[in-house]
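Handout, page 2. Input:
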Amino acid sequence: MATPSTTKTTIFSSSYDQPVLNFDSIRLRLASPEDILKWSKGEVLKPETINYRTQKPERDGLFSEVIFGPTKDYECYCGKYKRVRYKGLVCDKCGVEVTRSIVRRERMGHISLASPVAHIWFVRGVPSKIGMILNLSMQEIEKVVYFASFVVTAVDDGLREEELEKLKADFKVKKKQLQADEKVAINKFHADLEKAKAEGSKKTGIKEKTAIEKKYMEGTELLDGAFDVAKKELESLKVLSILSEQEYQEYGLKYGHIFEAGIGAEAINLLLKATDLEKEIKELEEEVGDGSTAKQRKLMRRLRLLSSFRKNGIKPDWMVLFHVPIIPPDLRPMVQLDGGRFATSDLNDLYRRVINRNNRLKRLQELNAPEVITRNEKRMLQEAVDALIDNGARHGKTVTASTGQRRVLKSIADVLKGKQGRFRQNLLGKRIDYSGRSVIVVGPQLKLNQCGLPKIMALELFKPFVMSRLIIEGVVHNVRSANRYIDSGEAEVWDILEDITKKSYVLLNRAPTLHRLGIQAFQPVLIEGKAIQVHPLVCPAFNADFDGDQMAVHVPLTEEARWEAANLMLSSKNLLKPATGDPITTPQQDLVWGGRYMTDMLESKDKQPKHYFGSWEEAVTAYQKQNIHLQEKITVILKDKKVETTIGRIFFNQILPEKLPFVNEALDKKSLRKIVSVCLEEYGLETTADFLDELMGLTLRYVTLSGMSWGMGDLPALPTKKGLLEEAKKQVETIEQQFSTGLLTAAERHDRIVEIWANVKDEVMNLSREALGGQTRNPVYSMIESGARGSWGQTTQMMGMKGLVTSPSGETIELPVTSSFREGFQVLEYFISTHGARKGLTDIALRTANAGYLTRRLVDVAQDVVVTAEDCGSKIGISFEKEESEEIGKTIGERVMGRTALKDIVNPKNEKVIVKKGTLISRVDAKNIDATDVSEIAIRSLLTCKTKIGVCQQCYGYDLGYNRLVEHGTAVGIIAAQSIGEPGTQLTMRTFHTGGVAGKDITQGLPRVEEIFECRVIRKGAVLSEVTGTVKLKEEEGQKIIEVSPQDGGEAIEYIAPPGFSLLVKQGDLINMGDALTEGSQDLHELFKLSGQETTEKYIIREIQQIYSSQGQDLNDKHIEIIVHQLFSRVYVTSEGDSSFLTGSVIEKATIDEENSKIKEKGGEQAKYQPLLMGMTKSALSTSSFLSAASFQETARVLIDAAITGRVDKLAGLKENVIIGRLIPAGTGFSGSRLEADVAARDDKKEA
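Output:
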């Protein structure tokens, strides 16, 4: 049994006193009956749980203190021994060991079964493991296990041969007898005929003679038939033959002495025990190599399974259980509810069923009950154990709760798998002590690294620290009185709390945490009220707004956690987005509007400034005396130059750091982002954080002083709109007439009407802009133009017209909504516009779930990719082309920024080296590259990184979260997964259906990203050429045919172009193998087979980049490269050589390369393999860590495979270390991290 309850694995603590922590790996193995008994502290004999009167566990029951340990610390069941001084003593009265009650979380029991039971995971797993070993189908195994059919367990070949000889002898005797009888009958007939003739009869006797001959002929045939049937029956009597009940009864009567047959798990156990692994493996090795590929695959699977049993010393008969282990009682608790009733774990009900049936079977066996009754009880016991292990495995045979709603009970397998299972609910994620949550509100007075924490919340979170200080200062003397003192609300408590929080950090987290910046550290500032205050500039990172969002607060307790909070997680040190390297703490909304207001310039009528000032101080003084307006054009002498500017712009420039140039323009969102970006480059994080605080204060002040707001009155009417609508209606009427006379098809009519109304909407939008732009200082205009909020599309709907809307199917409705929101809709307009609104909300809900699932799979496939080396020394990389970069909306400089140059980057005009080979390309270098005409750049890539485990610094380049070379131990795989998944919610969900052309569906957005990363087979995709050759185009019966004549003179290959897909090749084109002949998505497996790994990798990167850039989402190539690297990281072993791998197995390339290098040193034969392209789910499940795979998906299958192959988890990745409760081997858990260096430096100081 391969659940944690029955798997032979490293037991973390043999007893609570000696925890086993210094282990390097965990091995999962099938448990033998002896192992199960070794784990057990005693046999559970009764189904009872607790005594309803005493409320204490029943002896020998499911909660027995004798077996599982005491329920109270250091107190036996009867109360004879209490207190710690009796530790380790076993009570002579009640038999309970005096120890800590925590042992009830680790002590196991067992049930000794009256009849063996087959483990359902090995019976019903696909493929069935018992079936594979015995070479029987799952259906045949099930028939035997559930007492429907018998299986032959032994045949005496000698007796069978004797029986055959006897049968042949009997047959000969009977045949001779029959022939003799026939002869006698014929002779008698002739004698009778002669006698009749003598008496004068004229009878010929032909009919009578024929009847006699026919009778004996039929007799012979019957005898032959009976002989053949008996012979066949005897010959078919082989071990593993399946017999129905009727056949068994018949054969038993005839050949009972020749064979033995059994039924149920006992028979399966006998057969498994009799399996000679060595002999079977030898036979299979000889057999493999012959037969069809399907047969070969089946043989290979069986050989792999048998070999793994032999290699790991696992006996096949261990798949049949003689003892059922019982998991510790505290892992299946029973809790008393308010009304005196009890709530219990489903496992207790399932165990109770097993015990009841087992006890009943024992009683029946003692009474020597009839076979039919005991057989039925054995079947019920089998089903009870099945339900305990995996209640969902047998459909239609699930066990439901005896109470109320008849819900399906949760078995051990259900406890492990799924979102609510042990792995994902309790091991990978835990509820945290010292945490709280509350609604967030804006805190404009805060600094970037601060958050406002409600006092009552802070007191609860920092209670232990306050208590400790109260005791140290002698205010109170123990914890209990400290608690009472705090509850009394003394003033001293608040002073201590204030003092403690000054030096502390808290972590704020907003769900969903889509990327690293979803959790950041802040210094708490104590505030009144109950809501947490958050700095406005950190909202984009959290994707938070103040419409009722909640955030969770966590207190880092340990020294290391505090160091990480202060040095790595502080919000003022996380100003860049890890996905792109762009600033994320950029001003938005009110801040942008305030920036626009203070830097706007009012044009005077004569275009000349009225006021001149000798210095900016003079100008400020004039403003303070209210002689000039904030936005009035003035001339000021700055740095000996006359500058036409405004006082608002002077104020803005006063807060700018020195190196930044004078800003003399009306600011908008883009220009503010640019200023922040330049500040970061020039000054780094600390100065930029201070600048951002000043910027926020200034812009918020002026947006408040401006008093700007807007209502419907700020939207002017559009008098010319009516004329536009009338004109459009006339055009639509003309088209309707053309359609009714047959000049247009229905599709053309629809497209033209849609086009007319789309043009009208564009014209109305232009009218709206003109109407608003003509009004000086219109708040709506300044809000949109500055990028603070809203768009012209929204404004047009409010003051112009809503325009065309889509139906639920996604098609455009011809009838437009000509009213605006300001005017109000008519009933029909309102009705058709509700479709789009509802579809929008539904799409968002679906998209969010899909994006989350995509992120989860990406994380799982890339979680163990960590920067482990400085330089792998790879001499190859990939090339970025200028043309290709422009296609995805980026410059070549932007794409190579932060990467290592593989070759010298040279200016083609003057042959001057811009970046030397092996150097990191900085932002300045990237700008220089874009200024020249460089068409192609070769860089080091993660796709070609040679690091055995993880990746190296040079192939990765900049850590975009800090725009510097990536540090050792950075979990770049997780960063990549988050960077691809986080913008996923913004991607569309739709499948485009173009212009009424049947069959031409182009998957885009999120489904296309999923399709690529899962490497799905594409049904209607692009046609790829299988040869290199020349193209010839022809048309037959309305079908376009592409004929490719191979260069080597072989036979031409014809391809039919799918209808609706345009061709990408022309007559006479010379094409390569794997080139696309038509448009459409390319099948990755086909492309990989025809063009190889490099072309496929480039295609994936290009496709993903196009999807993200088309939706305005920026994404760095290196993140996609990491995922693609993982998709190609598995290989298929074609020849095992002298390695420990089996032919046909799929393993990680790094693992096989490592083993091959060891074999090469010894001069042995290396294993041969071929590269594989695997989708992310398959790749994540084929990882070498069974803990990581089991906590991802298909938990049961992963654990079954790991148990029978004796898999060893070396605990190299991140997930497996989280599961066992260790520091992850990344970040500060990686040897040589900054934390280690910091601690070492501090220790040195102390010693000095």
